[in-house]
Design brief:
This protein is mainly β and 117 residues long. It has no helices and 11 strands. The protein is globular and about 45 Å long.
């Protein structure tokens, strides 16, 4: 059974940092895959935040976070710095076959991040 479990969310003030973690089990990654994070904020479209793909070893970041978020090498930890109110969302870790940008195939229950003063 595929299982992805996110953790690390919480309530922070603008400018603070958080690290999200993702534990995964129950499946074998395909030969080519993307693995990373996306977020869903109320009233907004889902946004892919960060994704690593083994097809070329690249990590892709959304323009909105590329200078503030980092996907830790070797883990699925998402390190978020200088958080802003627009980062408020439920964050999910996910897996996709093939390459980043394809539709996520597996994801967890999400962890909520609230940025508020």
């Amino acid at each position: 059974q595929v299982r992805l479990v996110e953790s690390g969310g919480g309530v922070v003030q603008p400018g603070e940092s958080l690290t999200l973690s993702c534990e995964h089990s129950g499946f074998t990654l395909p030969r080519f895959y993307g693995i990373g994070w996306f977020r869903q904020a109320p009233g907004k479209e889902r946004e892919d935040v960060a994704c690593y793909t083994n097809t070329n070893g690249a990590i892709y970041y959304a323009d909105s976070v590329k200078d503030r978020f980092r996907l830790a090498s070797g883990t699925l930890d998402l390190r978020m710095y200088n958080l802003q109110s627009e980062d408020t969302a439920v964050y999910y870790c996910g897996v996709v076959s093939g390459h980043c940008g394809y539709a996520w195939e597996y994801w967890g229950q999400g962890t909520e991040v609230t940025v508020s003063s």
